[in-house]
């Protein structure tokens, strides 16, 4: 049987939920007990053949996996350098990679006898994917979302409502992703027995970074096999955008033992790395610190609190990042670069016009890096981009930014 799931040893935490010095378990006693229940349930579930059969069948018949790898010939020719390939997570049901971990999380909640899943969402992609998996598997779904994001991501808000989720608008602070996480955790504390928290990326306390990473590992296992079938070898570079880091970890995981393959995570440089709080380039400019119950690189303000951040892509504007990525940066196994809002918009338009593929603004950061890098490399070199989602949610916003 071909392997679909499983993490490389270097991105599995120790008993304390640590990847090197990063990550960690939650201290709060009631929450600690809830986290342990989830961790034990997760370990039992992934050792259960019936579960693996169930999720594989859903991935095949419901999500539409495996998502294809596509050689972007016209774009590559236009750039005159390396060949660009896309892992088409945008073609998944619900339009992004997030359905991969949402199916896993909702299956786990059901297995634990919970009635409801609770989560935060940024761009609304995690909320939509979780509301979808909840509708499919018959659970209630409560989604916390910043009011700024609600205004920006209207179609996803409508989708969540139609799918039957309860939407909780969060207006405190900057009204974006970080505040939504805090609000969702507070609500969870009041309903620990009946519900399960379902984080939307490889962030938060243990077991979430490992668990979400595990469910996303299907992307890399598929991609590695598909790429060698298609080209007879491995890519020279694999790249993905990094918000919390789940789509990037999902892809990179399968290539961590391949020293010949460069792994490059791309962070949002927003209005520039030298701007004041107008970027979210956590691994590029952050320091080691704590956010929401785990240790990672983090962007701090003048008072040592998590800083306000900005990206043109709502799904990337978070001042922390997954502990695995913090670890992989320090170990040198993965490189982290960034792309600005403008580079991202240019990449969004170029991919749309050259290939008829409209990428999500989040994914456009990885496309922007690939465009920059392809020009420096020879025509025999190959770059594999994780196209984490489609741009349907971003159309009006992009049209408000540029004349077409
Ligand atoms: C949420 C989202 C991201 C960012 O999340 P990661 O955990 O960093 O992958 C990237 N792309 C799309 C399309 C998203 O919806």
UniProtKB/TrEMBL annotation:
InterPro entries: Trp_synth_b_CS, Trp_synth_beta, Trp_synth_beta/beta-like, TrpB-like_PALP, TrpB-like_PALP_sf. The keyword Nucleotide-binding does not apply. One of its GO terms (molecular function) is tryptophan synthase activity. Its cofactor is pyridoxal 5'-phosphate. It comes from the Bacteria. Pathway: Amino-acid biosynthesis; L-tryptophan biosynthesis; L-tryptophan from chorismate: step 5/5. SUPFAM superfamilies: Tryptophan synthase beta subunit-like PLP-dependent enzymes. Keywords: Amino-acid biosynthesis, Aromatic amino acid biosynthesis, Lyase, Pyridoxal phosphate, Tryptophan biosynthesis. It catalyses: (1S,2R)-1-C-(indol-3-yl)glycerol 3-phosphate + L-serine = D-glyceraldehyde 3-phosphate + L-tryptophan + H2O. Residues 64-389 form the Tryptophan synthase beta chain-like PALP domain. Its EC number is 4.2.1.20. GO terms for cellular component: cytoplasm. The modification N6-(pyridoxal phosphate)lysine is found at residue 98. Belongs to the TrpB family. The beta subunit is responsible for the synthesis of L-tryptophan from indole and L-serine. Tetramer of two alpha and two beta chains. This is Tryptophan synthase beta chain.
